[in-house]
Every structure is written in structure tokens, then in C-alpha cells.
């Protein structure tokens, strides 16, 4: 797959670069450039990211960072079985537990919420940092909802991190998930409160909390361009009578000139 000339491979994280030092220099550069493309496209063009991840995987399947990148690319394309296999491979290679929450979410994607809940209660969770533990809580709550256990999902999300006033990278998503679970349980006034709190914490627009809040408040957004197009499409065509009148006027003008 083509790679833009401005992508050198030097853009990758230093830890990944260090992993690639086990490869021949030219090969390491090729793999690095493909990994950069995976990172660039993952959010906006997941299919493209997946394509580059497959190239990197073909070139260096024994590098943990490559397996991890392939896992995230597959995950972004909802290829959960493939993603889980890649994450497991990366974990075996490094012993790193950071991928545990996303591995559990892959189990959800495969229709196995019970397995995700088992992973949420495993000893590995205690080895996660705070961000990882919050992510695991979100996955566990999602698994509860998958199983129709709305009240249990709400309880799962109730935590010191949810109640904290300080804003952390996970705060907006945690508040949003809590608001969404409340709304699904029919607790609309509480849901509105927490969507508002999610908006306060969502400094980079990572959720659509503001839209959900507006929806609860009965605010409707109108696409001005679409409205103009509809107005033009619905503009009445001139009636036959008016067209006849225009013709008569033209004929009268012609007679006057004659």
C-alpha cells in the first residue's frame, strides 16, 4: 500500500522504535512507516488502517507492537475475533496487562458478555493503572447491559472516579456511560443531570453528550443547507394561468411596439 513521502517512520513512539531495533534497518523502517499509517488512519479511516496493519504484520509478526497495532486496527473494524487473537499474542510476548480491558470488550463484541464479566473480576484487573481500571469498569457495565441487567450496570459505574469533582481523561466517558444507563432504565431526570456533567468534562468532544442533553431538553437542530435545498425543491412551479398571462403580456407589448 502507498505511503506518503512525508511519513518517515520516525514519528512512532520511542518504545516501539526500540522494539523494531531487533529487525534489519531497512525492514524496521518499512514496518515503522506502516505503523505510523495505522495510527494516522485508525479513527477516520479504519479500513485503511487495517490494510496497513496487515502489511506490518506480514513484515514483522514477531514484534509485539505490530501485533498490538494489528489488534486495534481489527477492533476498529469490528473484527473482534481477530483483534482478540492479536491482543493475546501481544500480551504473551510482553507480559503487559494493559490490553486486558479491550480484550474483555472483544469478548462482548463476540457475544460473550459473561466472559467479559469473568475478566472484570480476574486478578489481572488489580494490576491495571487507574485509567485501565476505569476502562474495565466501563466494559463490565456494558456487559451487564448486554445481558439486560440495567440496574447492575448502573451500580457497576458508581465509583469514586464517577463521584470525583476533578476531571481526568476518562471522566467524560464515565459520566456519559452512567447517564446513558440511567436513561435506559427510565430515570430521565437523573440522566439529564449526568449528561450535563459529562458535557462539563468533555473538553475534546469525545462524546455526543451535548447532543444527548439537547435532545432531552427538546431542542431540535436544523440543517440550514438541507432546509434551503428542501425549500428550493418544494418551490411551486408557475401555474398555467400565470404562464398564459405572461404570454399575453408579451403579446401586448409586441402589439404596442408595432
SSE string: HHHHHHHHHHHHHHH
**Which ranges are low-confidence, i.e. pLDDT below 50, for 5 or more consecutive residues?**
none
Q: In one word, what is the shape? A: globular
Helix content: 55-70%
Structural class: mainly alpha
Task: Please describe the biggest sheet, giving its number of strands, its sense, and whether it closes into a barrel.
Answer: none
In whole angstroms, the N-to-C terminal distance is 74 Å
The quaternary state of the protein chains shown equals: single chain
Helical element count? Answer: 15
The overall average pLDDT, rounded, is: 89
Number of strands: 0
- CA gyration radius, whole angstroms: 28 Å
Describe what you observe in this structure.
InterPro entries: TPR-like_helical_dom_sf. This is Tetratricopeptide repeat protein. There is one protein chain. This protein is an all-alpha fold and about 260 residues long. The chain is built from 15 helices and no strands. The longest helix has 18 residues, at about 240-255. The model has no long low-confidence stretch (mean pLDDT about 90).
